[in-house]
Amino acid sequence: MTATARTRTAPTTPATPATPTTPATLVIGATGTTGSRTTAHLVAAGRRVKAGSRRAAPVPGAEPVRFDWYDPTCFGDAVAGADSVYLVPPVGDPDPAAVMLPFLERARAAGVRRAVLLSSSAIPEGGPAVGQVHRALPGLFDEWAVLRPSWFMQNFTGAHAHADSIRADGVILTAAGTGRVGFVDADDIAAVAARALTDDRAPDTDLVLTGPEALSHDDIAALLTEVTGRQVVHHHLTYEAMRDRLAAAVPPAFAAMLAGMDRSIAEGAEDRTTDTVHRLTGRPPHAFRAVAVRELAVRPA
Fold it and tell me: Which of 97, 119, 246, 294 has the CB geometry, 3.0–4.6 Å to 255, for a possible disulfide?
């Protein structure tokens, strides 16, 4: 569900720079879709941020640090001086707990006291993949939260298979049928993540995040057509066709899980909205049309 996207510009409200002796928040995946935005929110609030990425890429206002889930030699430097961590699981790994749990043990031992995990609305506590990390988190940290966003709006505008297919062919391919999803803006996820990481009291629960309305992929295609002036259509695939298509790019087990999520959408599993974004940030979540206008070229009047 997650995908790499360009970093959003931080709010212009001036903030007092953090000093190196201030406890830091380690943001894992700090150049990615939610990590970059979470970093921007934290920096704007004056929080010291260690921006973790495989190449320790520069991130405005943050301290770059190398982080690779599959290289434990970088863990020590990454958590040094941090009291909280934003966790983006390794992309495409059907068993992220195998690498994440040893890191979390080390982070706790190093003084990290709060952890916020990015999961998915489609994966419950104890479920497959990151659901196992969700189950373990409350036993590792006294202060924690699990963010369970619905599918990202940026899947259609950023660096994702759907967005690539839209740009190349004007097509969205899913096995979701006419099922509706409460698609959520990555910036809304980041705003909630920043609050969960810095509020005096941690949520200590899981939080299902959605946008303000549930839309089908046919609705998304129609909105993209309206906003961009280019025809976009949704092609309905079977579960088997979607699974086989995904298996060309990701491990078969992960492909089956992703195709199964589409099938669950078709059956109505994601047809819901929540008030979580509004409750935690004090503002309503962004609608898909507004995000599409913000992030895509708009047809001239």
Answer: 246
Per-residue confidence (pLDDT) for residue 18, from 0 to 100: 55
Q: What is the pLDDT at residue 11?
A: 44
Q: Record the pTM.
A: 0.90
CA distance 126 to 132: 5
Assign residue 172 the CATH number of its domain.
Answer: 3.40.50.720
Considering the domain boundaries, does residue 253 fall inside one?
no
CB 144 within 8 A of CB 115: yes
Rg (CA), the chain: 19
Beta carbons of 56 and 65 less than 8 angstroms apart:
yes
Report d(CA 207, CA 66) in Å as an integer: 29
Domain count, the chain: 1
> Is residue 62 situated within a structural domain?
yes
Give the domain range for residue 91.
Answer: 24-214+268-295
Structure tokens of 125? 């506590």
Which pLDDT score is estimated for 20? Answer: 59
The tokens describing 162, both together, are 């759907």
Angstrom distance (rounded) from CA 45 to CA 190: 13
> C-alpha distances in angstroms, 199 versus 114, 125, 193, 196, 278?
11, 23, 10, 6, 15
Report the first-to-last Cα separation within the chain, whole angstroms. Answer: 33
With vertex at residue 211, the alpha carbon angle to CA 153 and CA 258, rounded to the nearest 5 degrees, is 50
In 3D, which of 4, 201, 239, 8 has the Cα closest to residue 114? 201
pLDDT band with cut points at 50, 70 and 90 for residue 253: confident
**CA dist., res. 147 & res. 2, Å (int):** 13
Whose tokens are 């259509």? That residue is 233
- Rounded to 10 deg, the angle between the 252-266 and 239-246 helix axes is 150
* 180/202 Cα distance (integer angstroms): 31
How many angstroms separate the CA atoms of 137 and 125, rounded? 10
Cα-flanking dihedrals φ and ψ of residue 15, to 5°?
-135, 150
The sign one gets for the Cα dihedral 215, 151, 234, 244 is negative
